[in-house]
Design brief:
- By secondary structure, this protein is an alpha/beta fold.
- Helices cover 48% and strands 14% of the residues.
- The longest helix is centred in the N-terminal third of the chain and has 25 residues, at 2-26.
- Bound molecules: 2-acetamido-2-deoxy-beta-D-glucopyranose (2 copies).
- The site of one 2-acetamido-2-deoxy-beta-D-glucopyranose has 5 residues, from helix 8.
- One 2-acetamido-2-deoxy-beta-D-glucopyranose binds at residues 194, 197-198, 201, 203.
- Keywords: Membrane, Transmembrane, Transmembrane helix.
Length: 274
């Protein structure tokens, strides 16, 4: 009998430790969200971020935040890294831009809270199963703290995740071209690769696409496409980085963990007096 009690006790303690660890890892605190919001709003207004975009040939305006979110007085992070993710499928210069934004984000936080050892851990995710669902799942389950990929803020996405900031993007769509350019011969092709070739071999006069991609391509093909230029038109599409919206204030999570702890302890106690 005594032995059974001891084994039950050990099992229960194991379960408690497991639960506390699981809950801890799944709980994204409001504090983390507030810190990332405050840091994001500052680095996107920084000279360095502007210079980074310029250096990649992206001359679009980045709208500043109308109000600057306050930094919480303390940063309650029990580790010395932030996990920052972007999609495996990001091409050309995008990984470099994402990583730069992650470095600027972490530097902001480091300076604010004097955390010399805080580092950015970059992870890339295979998003062939669905770009948004994979990135959202990663931030919801704590695989990533922030999704750095430039995610279009459209449809019901804003209600599913917590977007940090937006960048203007003069994207245009096929339907727009059809409506606005009635006299043009519009050739719709899948993907970008052929379109670039058609511009280079002059079988197409214009390529209507995402302005950011066009800026970047033109910058890197100055010699082969000397007369090429980007003209902005169409509707503005906003995009940004995001974190989970499944966060809770840390006091709530502490209460939950403690609650589980006490109720399990009570069970153990009752087993002992039986
Ligand atoms: C930072 O890391 C160094 C060495 O890796 C260590 O000596 C130092 O105590 C750490 N500082 C903090 C604030 O954790
Ligand atoms: C131009 O490029 C496109 C896309 O790669 C290709 O399909 C087409 O055959 C090319 N035309 C000429 C004349 O080279």
């Amino acid at each position: 009998m005594k032995q059974l009690e001891i084994s039950l006790f050990i099992i229960t303690i194991t379960i408690i430790i497991f639960l506390v660890r699981v809950m801890d890892s799944l709980t994204i605190s409001k504090n983390l969200v507030d810190v990332i919001d405050a840091a994001s709003s500052r680095y996107i207004a920084s000279k360095e971020w502007r210079q980074t975009l310029d250096s990649f040939g992206i001359y679009l305006q980045t709208p500043g935040c109308t109000s600057l979110p306050q930094y919480p007085s303390k940063f309650e992070l029990s580790r010395n890294y932030l996990t920052l993710c972007y999609d495996n499928e990001a091409f050309d210069i995008w990984p470099a831009i994402y990583r730069k934004s992650g470095e600027l984000l972490v530097n902001e936080i480091k300076q604010q809270y004097k955390l010399d050892n805080l580092t950015a851990v970059f992870k890339t995710l295979d998003t062939t199963a669905g770009y948004f669902s994979v990135m959202k799942n990663a931030v919801d389950t704590g695989i990533c703290d922030v999704s750095l990929s430039a995610t279009a803020i459209s449809g019901d996405r804003p209600s599913q995740v917590h977007f940090q900031f937006v960048v203007s993007d003069g994207s245009v769509f096929q339907s727009y071209a059809q409506q606005q350019l009635p006299k043009a011969t519009i050739k719709s092709i899948p993907g970008y690769d052929d379109a670039w070739n058609m511009i280079l071999n002059k079988t197409a006069h214009a390529f209507v696409a995402d302005a950011l991609d066009l800026y970047v391509w033109v910058r890197y093909h100055k010699s082969s496409c000397a007369t090429c230029k980007v003209i902005l038109f169409g509707d503005e599409l906003r995009f940004g980085t995001f974190i989970t919206n499944q966060f809770q204030s840390s006091s709530v999570s502490t209460w939950r963990v403690e609650n589980v702890f006490w109720s399990l302890l009570l069970i153990v106690f009752m087993m002992f007096i039986n």
